[in-house]
Amino acid sequence: MEETKKFIMSRRQVLKTSVGTGILMASGLTAPGILRAQEQPIVLGHLVPLTGFLGTLGQYAINGLKLSADQINAAGGINGRKLQIIAEDSINPETAATKAQRMIERDNVDVLVGEISSASALAISEVATRNKKLFIATGPRSDVLRADRCSRYMFCSDIPNAVMVNAVGTALKQQGMVEGKKFFTVTSDYVFGHDLLKAAKAFFAENKAELVGDELVPTDATDFSANILKIRQARPDVVCLNLGGNQVTNFLKQYAEFGLSTPTVGFNLNTADAWAAGMGNFGGVWPTVWFDTIDTPGTKKFVEDYKAAYGGEIPENHAWIEYITGNILAKAFEATGGTDNEKIIDYFETEAEFDILKKRPAYFRKFDHQLVQEAYSFSVKPEGSYSTVHDMLELGAVVPAEGEKLTSIYPDDTGACKL
Amino acid sequence: MELFFLFEQVVNGLVLAGYYLLIALGLSLIFSVGGIVNLAHGGFYAIGAYLAVTLTPRLGFAPAVIISPVLVGCLGILFERFILRRFYREDPILSLLVTFGLAMVAEQAIRMIWGASPLSQTLPSALKGGVELGPLLFSKYRLAMLGVVLAILASIWLLLNRTSFGRVIRAGIQNPDMVGALGIRLQPYMTTVVMIGVSLAAVGGALFAPITTVHPAMGAEILTIAFIVVIIGGLGSFWGVVLAAVLVGVVRSITIQYLPAASEASMYILMFLVLLLRPRGLLGERMAKFEG
């Protein structure tokens, strides 16, 4: 509705505008500004889950990308063109694909951005590839998106499962919690979980750990009591969670409820889901792609800006990833002088570096379109040493350590990804 | 050993039944008395959880769990008085639409008041942890919750079967016109039933808050399960809902023991089988007002 209004002007308005523009043109001062303001905006089609077990993370994602666009627009836009976001709830893979197609055909979006669910991201990627439309996958972590199912038109800005496993695995090995230990895994029953389990199994095999139990749970399960009893029956040394979204929160809360003493670790936990688990409900070491206490000026400024924009709320990793993705896209539009997707892809494939508010800059790897960047582990502080959920978590060391090559924690080119 | 594991899951299923009963009982009450399919039931559940989380730091856990349902009950009175009342005799599609819309309003209202990110609620330390009875492990909290559910169940049974209030309600379920002909106005009874129904949802929300994620869409998460229990139990039947909750709890637990990936599917298969054999649900009654 709003868009049609914008373009339909009354005769009087047209006269006024043209007379006004004429005067301004004659004065020769502000004319370029006026011309710029009338250029079409650059439209980003933003699809993230706002309902279901990933819904909480989706809201952070919406806020993050919006903050990036607002700041870019406040600074005058990209070559005078404003960034406009059309955001929708992606719901599930089928709906995500339908909405992506509609965004391309009807809304003429310039680029597709978003998604957290790996299953939905695969569906969007297929639509994007068919339509030769660039899709920046911001949240999905399945390794297959960077291997067998990669595409010239998809770039991934979050870290993949293999890196999550490496980030936590390194910390676990240091604590002597891997070799010779019996693991019980609880895994989310969709592409992300399966993929993470595969990476975890490879890690266990490599480090001589034993897998004594291996449980798949549906994504809509909210009660884990029966699974917890099974864990008790199997008597493992470590419980390892390969769950997604608020499944981790529910599991940890119920695990604490039953009071089992076997330690939990996990290869995926988003900070918002950790905060929701509440104080004193879990321990262990977890991986993350970003954390609000990372000591860089960029991260500090982002946290302040985000809190100012959203009523004091502390951003979590999905807000950050959308924010830097917005900034990376803006840089690409500027560098290529427009929205030509092919040019942008070629530009990314030069492995141009971007500031992503961490110590080291990041770049999209040419062969699998993965944003190569630093990762971290975090742990839970001892009970009683913190007073709110927001200072319950402690950022661990950066992986790979400074001086080591960034690519050392990423899978090598196995030839699985054929772009 | 295998047999013991099976037994352990059956017991866990019985405890779990309390959890399902809490969310399904209120839905079933409103459904049978007013003939209204209350799709907003999950909304009241979520509001109950949020109020309890908000009140806990100020009043403590137990008072919050009591006051939150009282507040939601008051909301329920307004809900019945200004919205539901108009739809008892209308085409059911209208009340479906209205309550569906209301569920979305509730979810969005929660987003506006409390924000979109989940809130954290922790168990009181006295109720945290497990308790071993012989070889079986129970969660202290779930045992306490089961106690609350049994107390609620007993009170509602007494209310419906041993009071004059209950007699009118039961008559109203069967044949509202006849109750009217006897000179009894059903309206105040309906208000009370809706109040009780949504309060029960809020009790569920307040009690589940420490063991599940408190987020705006949490109402939608439980609604399907609540409906499955009501449908399996049979419309209008108090014991039907109880039996269905036990069945769903036990079937789900046993499924997790042998085929964890099918745990959620097991409920749907159970519903399918029950409806195939008994289209009115396990203990569903013939009700004059829904016939012909």
From TrEMBL, chain A:
Xref: Pfam families: Peripla_BP_6 (PF13458)
Signal peptide: none
Keyword Transport set for record: yes
InterPro entries, per database record: BCAA_transport (IPR051010), Leu-bd (IPR028081), Peripla_BP_I (IPR028082), TAT_signal (IPR006311)
Entry keyword set: Amino-acid transport, Signal, Transport
PROSITE patterns: TAT
Ranges for domain Leucine-binding protein: 41-383
Family assignment from sequence similarity: Belongs to the leucine-binding protein family.
Descriptive protein name: ABC transporter substrate-binding protein
Organism this protein belongs to: Pseudorhizobium endolithicum
From TrEMBL, chain B:
Membrane topology: Multi-pass membrane protein
Membrane-spanning ranges: 12-40, 60-80, 92-114, 141-160, 189-211, 223-251, 258-277
Protein's UniProt keywords contain Transmembrane: yes
Subcellular location: Cell membrane
Keywords associated with the record: Amino-acid transport, Cell membrane, Membrane, Transmembrane, Transmembrane helix, Transport
Main subcellular location: membrane
Highest taxon of source: Bacteria
A Pfam family of this chain: BPD_transp_2
Record-linked InterPro entries: ABC_transp_permease, BCAA_transport_permease
Keyword Membrane: yes
Family indicated by similarity: Belongs to the binding-protein-dependent transport system permease family. LivHM subfamily.
Protein name listed in UniProt: Branched-chain amino acid ABC transporter permease
Native source organism of the sequence: Pseudorhizobium endolithicum
Lineage: Bacteria, Pseudomonadati, Pseudomonadota, Alphaproteobacteria, Hyphomicrobiales
